[in-house]
Amino acid sequence: MTNKEKESKNNKSSISVFFDEVSRSSWLVPILAIFSGLLVGGLIVMFTTDEMYILIGDGQIFEGLSLGFRAMVDSFVALFTGSFGSPTKIIAALQSGDDLLIRRAFNPFLESFVASTPYIFAGLAVALGFKTGLFNIGAEGQLFMGAIFSVWVGFAVKGLPAIIHIPLALLAGALGGAIWGFIPGWLKAKTGAHEVINTIMMNYVAFRLSEYLLRGPLMRPETFTPVSPMILESAELPRFFESPIRFHLGFFIALFVAWLVYWFMFKTKWGFDLRTVGANPRAAKYAGMNIVRSTILAMVLSGALAGLAGANEVLGVNHNLALAFSSGYGFDAIALALLGKSHPFGVVLSAILFGFLRNGAIRMQIVGIPVDIITIIQAMVIIFIAAPAIVRSIYRLKEPKESDEQTFVTSWGAN
Amino acid sequence: MALALGIWAIFSRSLETGTFTTFVMTPGGSEFELPNWIFSTLPTLNTFAMIAFAFGAYQFIKGFGKRTNLILSIVVGLFVFSFLSWATAEKSINLAGLLKGTMVRAVPIALGAFAAMINERAGIVNIAIEGKMLAGALVSVLIGSLTNLWIGLIAAIIVGGLLAWVHGILSIKYKTDQIISSTVILIFATGLTSFVSARFLQKYQHLNSSGIFHSFPIPILSEIPFFGPILFDHNIFVYAMYFFLFFLYFALFQTRWGLRLRSVGEHPKAADTLGIDVNKTRYMAVILSGMMGGFAGAYFTLGSVGRFDEVMTAGRGFIGLAAMIFGNWSPFGSFGAGLLFGFADSLASKLAILGVNISSEFLLMTPYIATMIVLAGVVGRGQMPAASGQPYEKE
Predict the structure, then answer these.
(1) What total number of domains does chain A contain?
(2) B95-363: CATH topology
(3) At B198, is the secondary structure helix, strand, or coil?
(4) Which residues of B touch A204 (CB under 8 A)?
(5) Do B191 and A378 touch (CB under 8 A)?
(6) H/E element holding B33?
(7) How does pLDDT run along chain A (415 residues), one tens digit per residue?
(8) Cβ–Cβ of B384/A212 closer than 8 Å?
(9) Closest residue by Cα to residue B169 from B294, B277, B268, B282
(10) How many CB pairs under 8 A join A and B?
């Protein structure tokens, strides 16, 4: 900091300095982006309320608008109670002292963490790719492969104690994802074929493969529906509470893995190599780093993380594998990694946010708001994150001190 | 390059063994029926295997020159045809119907590829074709139900253009990473169309029944035996595909407009020096591409089933993108790749009816795997517009 800057800073009152700092901080943009995204989502709900237009059509403009506004408020209330649980219910349950009632009252809150868990894994997968300059759209396919591998280990490997069976099934999931990440990584490193197209293609191959397996070799013997057999009890991730709460060990494993990714990326030489290759491949090359190895390693790790997301769903929540079980965790993960600025801890926070949104959306559905509103909110959030200039101009923020906006991959070809 | 050769060699080799296995597995003396075309399977397959083998051997001896793509496609064609004869041994398949279905199913893929091509030629990467298709599909059915089909079609085109305009603002004005901005458009369009569909269309069913454009034969052309009905007895979307194929080829490669557009994609700085407004050209290309995407989306509703279902495009926009890359960023190449994907699509549905004992899932995988192989080996580097994906900053 130069003297002049110091002087000008001293001249200001402490409050304006505080606002100055806040408005320049890089964390303000994500928070405002989430806020704006929710607001846009609310407005969309309001303006798609058909009764509102009927009232306005009758000339009751004010009543119509207030009805639309109420629909918006109702949906936010539903989002809140769906993701955190209803405060009145929680108090009533605690007063009654009934075990089942208490569990039911707290279920929404804990279920939100259940929904967050695959997001953490998948978000870490995409984020690790971003940090290495790779755009892994294939998290969804890797997630499927992870689920396939781990469900197979879950039901076909018999006679193991849980302490061995669970890690084995998880590792199988990671391996499945890693294989699916390795192929595009290898192609990218060796031939320059762009990973975006290849991971999209691999997604479709994974979907088809899972269809084939679930209709053939992996189909539950006595049924005709494409569902795999249930995994053995020894492979199930332990749950902490009795039914209906599904909160399971996976969440803590996810937190641990997030810490592991942080440690790997920021505290080891390999992680440093990966980040350098991502930030400036040319410099990395002149520094003697092995770009081929870094690219492959990054895609393998990214795939393994996405595979863990699939394994987690299978071992912790569903206990079997059905067609199209994932419903887009891998794609949402892209939004999430952007929101978390590709930093493992940021990813965890945004994954928890997405988990709450997703879980709350189920409740919103009951008041007649389709779940897809969450997708819209996510899209708006990424727009505001990816183009910070928009948010900064809406809220009249100042430019950040140093530009921490990262550039990702650019085009299809070899660079 | 050596690696590309390696991949190619493995591919062609496995093809040859593939043809041989089909030959071994075939029971002799069976029939293959066309509109009246019956032949015995065994000798035919034998011949095909020989020809494919000869081509493969020729490749090995002569090395891999310019004709690699041509020979590859011939061999693939032979393989597909022999697979078909093997699969229908002792049964019958309507080959004309299969090819006609190919033309229809190629429409969204080829149009999607054209849309992506206009973008990429001007230096904008766009993976949101799918989103524009969905938006076009939804709007066309909504407006089409309220008014008539033609207005619905125009509305689809306009909506595609509007979405593309937002994409343009994000990636040209705000210089957002283009892959991210188009991902956003994709997510947004997917979410919004599903939202509107769930909130309105299920409640008001009459808004979701627009009717469809019926097919009409082109007078003289459709009377050509065999090819006539396959190529010239369709609805307007197929004809539009033919039109855009030639129109784009002409516009991009024969006009000053096309030259300018391509120069912006190849070397924006040079184009700027020559007085071409880079960003304006890019806006125009993005919006045109979006309009094309919206039009392709209308195919799903107005050209096919007449109603909107959530996520009904089922990845065709992405496959269109793959078709463009497969087709080397050129109209005819993209069209050919679109036909290939369309053929696989059409074949899968026919095979499901035939009840062939090879899993259709594996067959459905082949276009994706083929794209990856082509991307890795045959097309490789250097063919794409050089400045694709890079925002242009005037200095």
Answers:
(1) 1
(2) ABC transporter involved in vitamin B12 uptake, BtuC (1.10.3470)
(3) helix
(4) 315, 318, 365, 368
(5) yes
(6) strand B31-33
(7) 445 444 444 455 566 655 565 555 566 777 888 888 888 888 888 777 777 777 777 777 777 788 878 888 888 888 888 888 888 888 888 888 777 888 888 888 888 898 899 999 999 999 999 888 888 888 999 999 999 999 999 888 888 888 888 899 999 999 999 999 999 999 888 877 778 788 888 988 898 888 888 887 777 777 777 788 888 888 888 888 777 788 888 899 999 999 999 999 988 888 888 888 888 888 888 888 888 888 999 999 999 999 999 999 889 888 888 877 666 788 788 888 887 888 899 899 889 988 888 888 888 888 778 878 888 888 888 888 777 777 777 777 666 554 444 444 444 433 3
(8) no
(9) B282
(10) 155
